[in-house]
Amino acid sequence: MAMIMLDFTYNGTDFTYGFLSSPPNICGMEAVVAFRFLQVIIYVGALVSLLYFYGIIQAVLKRLAWLMQFTMGTTATESLNACGCVLLGNAESPMLIRPYIEKMTNSELHAIMTTGFSCIAGSVFAVFISFGACPRYLLSAAVMGAPGSLACSKLLYPETEESITKGVDDLDLPPSKERNAMECVASGSLEAVHLVTAVLASLISFVAIMALLSGIIDYAGTLIGHPGWSLEMLFGYAFFPIAYLIGVTEFEQALIVG
């Protein structure tokens, strides 16, 4: 179902970028990452903005936050923020509880920061699916990340104060600033463009730096008579025990996973 919904992105990318998005199957040509896969972020950003405009996102978040508060005993604000991180991301979800941040306890603030680092934005979630990752595994990890991060946060920083937010129904979620659906789609798309630019810049810089480090390690290995060393090989040996503990028992496979 998720793949079917995301495939509609390619109608827009094929119209805009042509063969750069869907190149012909000749001479080993492959789609350009920036023109095909990352454009899912723009599509999902516009879709989420549209759903928020009609109040669907707010209704879903409140129901999920109520369930989390009922089952885990967390406060309304941190529960709502945790659920928001699953659908919106760690940058947008704190905006839902902005009026309450100044009056939140230290434990609640710690929970918000912990939850933000444990979840990914829905648009980035869609990018992983477009790369071929299994949607069921990603969805399971994203959903489990919200209660798991709250549990870890409360273990590290237990609540010792009285929260001002007792119930989720008492929270007033800010309405959409846009005046109509078309403006909402345009605004969501423009906001997603900044995220696409950040992802592209990070990919270029990190891949280049990793290649630089691998080149330095290979050169150092050549000087001492061990050519073929790389950063991936060093990480493989360093994290081999972790890969073995999670169930990868074959040596070569454990090196790759590590």
Automatic annotation (TrEMBL):
<dbReference type="InterPro" id="IPR011657">
    <property type="entry name" value="CNT_C_dom"/>
</dbReference>
<feature type="transmembrane region" description="Helical">
    <location>
        <begin position="109"/>
        <end position="131"/>
    </location>
</feature>
<feature type="transmembrane region" description="Helical">
    <location>
        <begin position="40"/>
        <end position="61"/>
    </location>
</feature>
<dbReference type="InterPro" id="IPR008276">
    <property type="entry name" value="C_nuclsd_transpt"/>
</dbReference>
<keyword id="KW-0812">Transmembrane</keyword>
<feature type="transmembrane region" description="Helical">
    <location>
        <begin position="192"/>
        <end position="217"/>
    </location>
</feature>
<keyword id="KW-0472">Membrane</keyword>
<dbReference type="Pfam" id="PF07662">
    <property type="entry name" value="Nucleos_tra2_C"/>
</dbReference>
<keyword id="KW-1133">Transmembrane helix</keyword>
<feature type="transmembrane region" description="Helical">
    <location>
        <begin position="229"/>
        <end position="248"/>
    </location>
</feature>
<dbReference type="InterPro" id="IPR011642">
    <property type="entry name" value="Gate_dom"/>
</dbReference>
<feature type="domain" description="Concentrative nucleoside transporter C-terminal">
    <location>
        <begin position="137"/>
        <end position="258"/>
    </location>
</feature>
<feature type="domain" description="Nucleoside transporter/FeoB GTPase Gate">
    <location>
        <begin position="35"/>
        <end position="132"/>
    </location>
</feature>
<dbReference type="Pfam" id="PF07670">
    <property type="entry name" value="Gate"/>
</dbReference>
<dbReference type="GO" id="GO:0005886">
    <property type="term" value="C:plasma membrane"/>
</dbReference>
<protein>
    <submittedName>
        <fullName>Concentrative nucleoside transporter C-terminal domain-containing protein</fullName>
    </submittedName>
</protein>
<dbReference type="GO" id="GO:0005415">
    <property type="term" value="F:nucleoside:sodium symporter activity"/>
</dbReference>
